Amino acid sequence: MLYREWEKFLKQPTILDVADRAGVSKSLVSLVMREPDRVSDASRKAVLDAAQELGYRPNAVARSLVQRRTNVIGVILSDLHNPFFADVADGIEDAAFQRGYRAMLSSGFLDPNRERGAIETMLELRVDGLIMLGSMMKVVDIEKVAASLPVTLLGRHTRSKVVDSVGVDDSAGAEAAVDYLVSQGHSKITHIHAGSAAGSPRRRIGYEKAMRRHGFGKHIRLVKGAFTESGGAKAMTTILESGDLPTAVLAPNDFAALGAMETIDSAGLSIPGDISLVGYDNLALAALPRIGLTTIGQPRVDLGRDAVHLILERLDENRESARHLVVPPNLVVRATTGPPRVHSTGL
Amino acid sequence: MLYREWEKFLKQPTILDVADRAGVSKSLVSLVMREPDRVSDASRKAVLDAAQELGYRPNAVARSLVQRRTNVIGVILSDLHNPFFADVADGIEDAAFQRGYRAMLSSGFLDPNRERGAIETMLELRVDGLIMLGSMMKVVDIEKVAASLPVTLLGRHTRSKVVDSVGVDDSAGAEAAVDYLVSQGHSKITHIHAGSAAGSPRRRIGYEKAMRRHGFGKHIRLVKGAFTESGGAKAMTTILESGDLPTAVLAPNDFAALGAMETIDSAGLSIPGDISLVGYDNLALAALPRIGLTTIGQPRVDLGRDAVHLILERLDENRESARHLVVPPNLVVRATTGPPRVHSTGL
DNA sequence: CTAGCCATATGGAACGTTCCAATTGACTAT
DNA sequence: ATAGTCAATTGGAACGTTCCATATGGCTAG
User: Fold this and answer.
1) Using a CB-CB distance cutoff of 8 angstroms, which residues of chain B are in contact with residue A81?
2) Which of B57, B79, B71, B73 has its CA nearest to residue B11?
């Protein structure tokens, strides 16, 4: 038993040890592990018993080497702290597991260089596919990676011919928000946008489109902010100082909405009494007491599942051409929206 | 070039391809990759150039097989969504990377069975060490795992002789909270606890100890809640309905504090005017506008770093006996605490 | 009694590295 | 000239699996 006592951890038993003890060949043991049905009852029992007694555990490293396949899907999260990514990662792990794969997560630390390093590690580890959540890298660089393995870009849109993508229809989300506000009686709806940051342009387009569709083109008003709390706060300050108050504000995401909320609060105005506020992303914090932010939700777990399926289509079904999936978002109504005060209901 | 066109992805070049092209032996190539200094300048350049031209990337799977070491540390997060774990994971990835290791994250989905499965996968993958963040499993089961590799338990205390642990001094944190409240003039401080849930007993002990130390033993009051928002809300309701209001409440964690906050709000009482409130954990949400929760912070990144070091001590320095690290927490003062109203300042 | 078949089981090569003992050859000291 | 030294390099044996072509042996049909 302790025949190698000088080793800190006992040498793990191999398939050969099991074969010896069971009195069969290593090939048979291997077969029992992979396709138990193809083996006679007696052998199967002998092997299984021996494996049990020795505490044998297949060595995935050796298996991967000969199979040239690790059954691992690499996932690079640009930011571990983003709760949106955490949800998506859950969906990924789940879907991967059900198809016999494992997910290996790694953080990109919001830094393209560290992200690049994380990818390099994944490639050395020979993961079978790569899912990038909110990557900070340039698409051309990602396309180079896609020469070695299937890559899916999640949460970013692309028309690439080699990397797949799955994203949310940001335009539709913004439209839904405007539609809802209009249904509540709003017409003076201002949009804080985040410039050309990922996702923002499409949200802006949806906003403008919906405003025009409702005949409120003249009320379109865009204020530059950012995807951050302070970006939202500054933009809101600009709006308040302009003196021309809208009855509703559509923020580019929940963080910005939070900043706007703070600004409105400290100006002594009420939400939604004076101004209705809508965020985007439906982060967990949007549901917190005292916050209760109306926002646009994204089917996160579905996104994860879809990303895995895209990888597996290339791996197991030999798909060659890129696919780009777009899933629709949904509106989540909470406490920061309501009808505008009567005197401003227009008409 | 496309000599294997039928393959979806080009066969990756191996060390042999590089050796051929550089006109040297495979052993030399291997040496260049590992210890470039031991090779003549000419050979080094030839090999590096050849590798570059072929796009060679070392195969970590093959290397791991022969070295019987993967240079990967497995990390099981009981819950990906817990922002506390995300911070710690950051610290782990960072520290591991600096020591030449990679971290492989996996979620336990808050379910002991799935956690068990995640461990099994890690073991098959032959990770070199395992860090468990907030594990839901029994310590005896984890100790069995520790027979195969070094295991560090993080965020849970244990006296185990085989698994290491690193945790926060929960008792000291609760003491610090009480000390601060007393310094503000409070004496009627009530503690909502979470029964025997991980961490709660120590926090309660710290509370009681500090209360006695200040001579407020008679004001010790414990109300059973839980580590959840609803748990905090219910406990707070109990307190309010008792009619005997404390001037300050120490919640078992931030979520519970949030629930308590909601209850106090809807009772029409003010924070901190009527009741000061202290949480525990310093989650990101504690810093949000409108929330501004005073709470006990934990040095998360340090925790991660320490956990990695514990693993590496066993791996690289042959430590045999278990170590249990305890790091001190720190108080973060925000808006939910202040002096009690004058009429209740006691004396 | 022989041929053929089928289910079951086997040995050896391969996967892409690292490790180690052994080889080479230039140079130095005698 | 000869032996010794040293740096640089090499070939072959591992590592623990899977895969594949082949062997074994009992059974059935002629």
Assistant:
1) 83, 86-87, 90, 284
2) B57
